[in-house]
């Protein structure tokens, strides 16, 4: 059974899509009212303010779609994983972020690694495509799909985007404090298994 956040997100997506296709001003007003109800529901669940939620979703127009979080898993010969530390919060994650328009998912992943870690990688394959709702990430107002590619280092360099302040390889059984909104320890261990076994996971 869908939880309350899933229901509020779905309600908001229906309102956004309805506003996109509606040509009747009365229908548009009804969809705006539905959106306001969804904003209030999300705000109540987050113990926040409905106007703040409305501002968060203000740029979201057109047909509602899940957001794409694209990341890259790079392993060394010892099976350690490449992680970067987010400067803003001091927590570690796989290099990655929102997919940008104008590049393929694999190109997005390679660019994120280069900008956040300094390494140039060759993308080999997709390791995992996860619906973040099915994992124990902190609740998000957005519906997010996470794509994780496998990368192979071809050159070293220096980070360029300023969003990360440390880079390192870590044993999967000795991970640093993680940004669990971005990646979970069990996900990293699963990626290590997929890397070793040549598998792929969709969830």
Characteristic key phrases:
three-stranded antiparallel sheet; five-stranded mixed sheet; 203 residues; 36% helix; 26% strand; elongated; 5 helices; alpha/beta
Secondary-structure blueprint:
Blueprint: H1 4-21, H2 25-46, H3 50-57, E1 67-74, E2 81-86, E3 92-93, E4 96-98, H4 105-117, E5 120-131, E6 144-155, E7 164-170, H5 185-197, E8 201-202
Parallel strand pairs: 1-6, 5-8
Antiparallel strand pairs: 1-4, 2-3, 2-7, 5-6
Global morphology? elongated
Q: Nearest-angstrom radius of gyration?
A: 19 Å
Largest sheet: 5 strands, mixed
Number of helices: 5
Q: Give me the secondary-structure category.
A: alpha/beta
N-to-C series of helices and strands? HHHEEEEHEEEHE
Distance between the termini: 17 Å
Rounded mean pLDDT is 89
Helical content (DSSP H or I, runs of 4+): 25-40%
């Amino acid at each position: 059974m869908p939880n309350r956040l899933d229901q509020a997100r779905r309600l908001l997506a229906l309102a956004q899509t309805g506003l996109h296709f509606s040509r009747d001003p009365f229908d548009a007003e009804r969809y705006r009212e539905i959106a306001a109800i969804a904003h209030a529901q999300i705000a109540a669940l987050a113990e926040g303010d409905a106007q703040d939620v409305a501002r968060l979703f203000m740029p979201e127009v057109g047909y509602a779609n899940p957001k794409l979080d694209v990341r890259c898993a790079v392993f060394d010969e010892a099976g350690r994983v490449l992680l970067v530390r987010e400067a803003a919060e001091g927590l570690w994650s796989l290099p990655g972020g929102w997919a940008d328009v104008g590049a393929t998912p694999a190109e997005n992943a390679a660019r994120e690694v280069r900008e956040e870690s300094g390494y140039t990688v060759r993308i080999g394959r997709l390791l995992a495509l996860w619906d973040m709702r099915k994992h124990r990430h902190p609740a998000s107002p957005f519906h997010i799909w996470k794509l994780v590619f496998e990368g192979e280092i071809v050159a070293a360099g220096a980070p360029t985007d300023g969003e990360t302040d440390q880079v390192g390889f870590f044993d999967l059984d000795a991970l640093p404090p993680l940004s669990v909104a971005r990646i979970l320890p069990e996900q990293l261990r699963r990626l290590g298994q997929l890397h070793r076994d040549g598998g792929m996971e969709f969830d």
